[in-house]
Structure formats: structure tokens, C-alpha cells
């Protein structure tokens, strides 16, 4: 099963993680207590590939937004010189070609964390990357873009926490409710439908839809499906050798054909082909 880093996060999602690790160094660290209600964790990437070599990084994202500074890799669609980026929830596989040398430092917000901090609905960022200055204070963005700071990961993490702490809002009971629900969905694999989740938390599917759409940008059905797909891919990467039908049933698919369609649409190959590539 995916390694749980805290109540609302896992480290699942990187496709072919062993191959990824041969090309890119990935580090994660917990958020400090001052920002932990809104921030899942810090993460960083560093790579140095010889000329002519490249690696296709493929990730099944989480229902979260991120704040990154990116050197050596220019995000598609970003204006020249914009290195600090906010990325919303990605509903599709997130692909990046890794070439040359580069470094990325990032903050992964908790589900709904960026909306709770800024008051802006997350639906405006779904499947989009935007300059961070469009979302967060200019002072914060300018500080995080400092090349000298980028070369010191610990200092960069301290700076981003200090700047985010300066914009911390009043307590938000609706966001706290969302996090309780997300934590439950992440941990309890018996929750397979939105109706299951609504019944567990004494609400209605329609109320859940409004809550998730505002804070996360996608509905609860999408979040359920993404977490279960993370579990499926992790099982395959860990060497699962049972039947794919049994794997599908374990995580909530009632027939293999439906499971194969969903897997192929998101991952890009059938479950059988993905397992054979291991």
C-alpha cells in the first residue's frame, strides 16, 4: 500500500517509480506546525542527465494544488522568466520530459488548502498552471524566486513557510470538515461510492459535491476513483501477481472491462501491459 505521510496524503502516483529514481532524485519533508493545516509536505526534484538523454516522467496527480519554483525546466505556457508556479488539480496523467540539469522545490497543499488560504475557488485552477503572482502575494513570489535561495533547499522551505504563515486566515470549519472526509476516504478502502461517504459523514451527495467543487475543484467521485487507482498502480509496482480481476474487485470495480477502460484512460496502457513493463 502507498506510504502514508500524514492524514490526507500518500506518496503514490509516480508511474514506474524504480525507473524514475534512476533519473531523478526526489526528496520529501513534512510541513512545519505553523502551516500544517494547509500544507501536506515539501518536496524537491534534482536531475542531471547527459546530453542527448531524456526521461519521460509520468505521474497520476493527487486532488491537491502545488506551489513550485522551477529552474532548468520551463513550464509550458508560462511567460518568460516566471519560475514560481501554482498548479491546480490535474485530472489527467501529468507528463514532463526531463532533460539536462534542473531543480524544482515544491509545496503540496492539502486538499482544499490553497482555497482555504486565499478564499478563491479551486475550480479556477483545475488542469491549469498559472504564475504564482496571480494567486499569492508578490512579496512571497519574489522571495521564492531568488536563485540563491533555490540553491539552499532548507532555506527555501523555511522561507515559504514564513511567507505562507503571514497569510494564514481565520479557522475555516468547512475546510476542516473536508479534510476529515478526505482522510477517511484515503484510509478506509470500504468506502467505494459517494453515497457511502455521505452516509458515513451524515450529509448528502449533493452537499459533498458542493464542498469538494469549491475547495478541491473536482467532485468526491473523482477523488474516490483517483485514490483507488493510486492503490491499484502501487500494488502492481510492488509486484502483485494475482489476477487483474481480483485486483479490480479489491478496489471497487465490479467488472474487469470497466476497470481496464478506467486504467487505460488514465495511465495510458492496459493494466496487463503496465504490469509487464515492470
Automatic annotation (TrEMBL):
HTH araC/xylS-type domain segment(s): 176-277
UniProt entry tagged with the keyword Transcription regulation: yes
Origin superkingdom: Bacteria
A Pfam family it matches: HTH_18
Keywords: DNA-binding, Transcription, Transcription regulation
Classification via InterPro entries: AraC_XylS_family_regulators (IPR050204), DUF6597 (IPR046532), Homeodomain-like_sf (IPR009057), HTH_AraC (IPR018060)
Keyword Transcription regulation: yes
PANTHER family hit by this protein: HTH-TYPE TRANSCRIPTIONAL ACTIVATOR RHAS, HTH-TYPE TRANSCRIPTIONAL ACTIVATOR RHAS-RELATED
Protein name as it appears in the record: Helix-turn-helix transcriptional regulator
Organism: Phycicoccus sonneratiae
Amino acid at each position: 500500500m502507498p506510504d502514508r505521510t500524514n492524514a490526507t496524503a500518500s506518496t503514490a502516483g509516480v508511474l514506474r517509480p524504480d525507473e524514475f529514481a534512476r533519473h531523478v532524485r526526489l526528496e520529501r519533508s513534512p510541513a512545519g506546525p505553523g502551516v500544517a493545516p494547509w500544507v501536506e509536505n515539501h518536496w524537491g526534484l534534482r536531475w542531471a542527465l547527459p546530453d542527448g538523454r531524456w526521461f519521460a516522467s509520468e505521474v497520476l496527480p493527487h486532488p491537491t494544488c502545488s506551489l513550485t519554483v522551477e529552474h532548468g525546466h520551463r513550464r509550458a505556457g508560462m511567460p518568460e522568466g516566471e519560475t514560481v508556479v501554482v498548479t491546480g488539480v490535474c485530472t489527467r496523467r501529468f507528463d514532463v520530459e526531463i532533460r539536462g540539469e534542473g531543480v524544482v522545490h515544491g509545496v503540496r497543499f492539502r486538499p482544499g488548502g490553497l482555497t482555504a488560504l486565499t478564499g478563491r475557488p479551486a475550480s479556477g485552477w483545475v488542469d491549469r498552471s498559472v504564475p504564482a503572482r496571480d494567486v499569492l502575494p508578490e512579496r512571497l513570489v519574489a522571495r521564492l524566486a531568488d536563485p540563491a535561495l533555490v540553491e539552499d533547499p532548507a532555506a527555501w522551505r523555511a522561507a515559504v513557510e514564513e511567507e505562507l504563515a503571514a497569510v494564514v486566515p481565520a479557522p475555516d470549519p468547512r475546510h476542516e470538515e473536508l479534510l476529515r472526509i478526505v482522510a477517511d476516504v484515503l484510509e478506509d478502502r470500504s468506502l467505494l461510492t459517494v453515497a457511502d461517504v455521505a452516509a458515513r459523514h451524515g450529509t448528502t451527495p449533493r452537499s459533498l459535491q458542493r464542498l469538494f467543487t469549491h475547495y478541491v475543484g473536482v467532485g468526491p467521485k473523482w477523488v474516490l476513483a483517483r485514490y483507488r487507482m493510486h492503490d491499484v498502480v502501487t500494488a502492481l509496482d510492488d509486484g502483485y501477481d494475482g489476477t487483474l480481476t481480483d485486483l479490480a474487485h479489491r478496489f471497487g470495480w465490479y467488472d474487469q472491462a470497466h476497470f481496464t477502460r478506467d486504467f487505460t484512460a488514465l495511465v495510458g496502457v492496459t493494466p496487463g501491459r503496465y504490469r509487464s513493463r515492470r
